Amino acid sequence: MKIFKIHLKNFRNHKIISYVDYFPEENFGQCHCYSYPYTMKNYDNITNHFPGGLFKCVTRISLFDERPFQHEFFLKISQSFPLLEGLTIQNFQSQNKKSDDDNNEHLPIIKYSHLTKLYLINVHDDYIEQFLFHSKSVLTNYISLSVQHDALQRATNHFTREQTRINSAKISHFFLPGRHDLSKDFRQYFPSLQSYCFSLVTYNKNN
Questions:
Q1: Does residue 70 lie in a domain region?
Q2: Has this prediction a pTM greater than 0.85?
Q3: Scanning 132, 150, 160, 176, which has its CA 20 to 30 A from the CA of 119?
Q4: What's the CA dihedral at 153, 161, 126, 108 to 10 degrees?
């Protein structure tokens, strides 16, 4: 991997933060370099090397890594981005530390006070569980969720799982890639659902 020198001027009153990632599966690397305090609204391609901090202006972020994101990482994310509204995750690696449905007392529950859009299309099922398990996450607002139908079905145990029922009641909009026949169990499991969109077909229950 090539290393490039970056020269920054006129930042005497700002702290400069940088970190480097290399992804062997994709055979590419990336470098984040920014002044702190960070004043932009977006922060993309955050990895496990993210050093933390407080980002008061950021409302939309994306996460990507070839290593798994653990619960502690999501806690850091929630604390670093208190005004987070939109979150996109791309990670196909299973979480290493898995607790069973009813024994999560040693982990702090993560509260997402402003989150309204969640993109979980290119993820391992564990990250769907990370946000739907009420023992792991609290969704304060109604959520627009983009997710694969089959993965959602597995995470909710065919729309019967009690551990995911509370947060599922906060889902108001779905984007489901592909074309699917939504079962009666699906509709009952998401009582706040207002609309859903397939790749080519959109439905709104108010029509």
A1: yes
A2: yes
A3: 160
A4: 150
